[in-house]
User: Which sequence fits this backbone?
């Protein structure tokens, strides 16, 4: 007996397309907040390189961070606006990631018995845990170099001294944690930039090649820039 398996299109189309539209919106939120965070990461990495210009230059730069936009705004206001913006971006980024991941698994009616061997790049597979490592690192890092709570020097007026004390040879485990976290940032970024360029850019074979290449270059430059600081301290280039 023939069974009519057709579902009237009108019955499914509106809710499906509604869900799809909001998933696209969530991807746009992920891409835009991701770009904001990448911008911060790049500016922060470039600022950190000031350490190679000596103690005075680095401490002057750290002090300037508190005076940006003065006298238009009172001292530290810009810093707090930036902190607020970054916090909102991180929350929106994580929330959309969680919702999108839940939707993806709900759309898979039967759970995989075996994980399929091909699941995209290593970077794509490590997004969740990479993100968690980066988040834990940021909490540790703020207690280390912003508040100084976990830093052996912990003197807010002397950020250069804090950084040098942080990456001393006998505190190799701190450098190791920074290295792991920064490499995790690199992997996270590689996949993140690739997805963002694909979401916001042209979805053609050429667009995909550009997305892949720019993601690799941007994340390698960032990782090398960040890691140069702890390794310069460890090897005595900066002391
Ligand atoms: C070896 C690499 C890094 C070094 C040497 C470094 C250095 C610093 C220093 C010195 C400060 C304090 C600035 C000040 O208030 O005077 C700081 C703040 C901060 N860093 Fe890093 N950083 C590194 C990597 C990272 C990474 C990978 C991230 C993000 C994933 C990050 C995120 C932050 C944030 C969010 C703050 C707080 C900014 C604020 O006060 O609002 N840093 N960092």
Assistant:
């Amino acid at each position: 007996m023939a069974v009519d398996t057709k579902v009237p299109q009108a019955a499914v189309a509106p809710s499906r397309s509604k869900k799809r539209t909001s998933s696209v919106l969530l991807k746009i939120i992920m891409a835009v907040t991701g770009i904001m965070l990448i911008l911060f990461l790049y500016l922060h990495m470039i600022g950190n390189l000031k350490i190679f210009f000596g103690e005075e230059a680095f401490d002057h730069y750290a002090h300037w961070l508190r005076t940006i936009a003065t006298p238009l705004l009172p001292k530290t206001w810009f810093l707090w606006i930036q902190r607020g913006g970054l916090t909102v971006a991180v929350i929106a980024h994580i929330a959309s990631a969680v919702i999108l991941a839940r939707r993806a698994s709900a759309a898979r009616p039967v759970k995989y018995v075996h994980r399929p061997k091909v699941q995209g790049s290593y970077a794509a597979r490590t997004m969740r845990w990479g993100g968690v490592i980066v988040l834990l690192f940021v909490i540790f890092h703020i207690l280390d170099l912003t508040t100084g709570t976990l830093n052996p020097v912990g003197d807010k007026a002397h950020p250069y001294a804090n950084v040098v004390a942080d990456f001393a040879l006998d505190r190799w485990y701190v450098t190791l944690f920074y290295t792991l976290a920064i490499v995790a940032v690199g992997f996270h970024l590689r996949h993140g930039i690739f997805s963002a360029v694909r979401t916001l850019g042209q979805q053609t074979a050429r667009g995909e090649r550009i997305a892949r290449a720019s993601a690799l270059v941007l994340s390698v430059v960032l990782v090398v820039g960040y890691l140069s600081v702890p390794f310069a301290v460890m090897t005595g280039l900066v002391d």
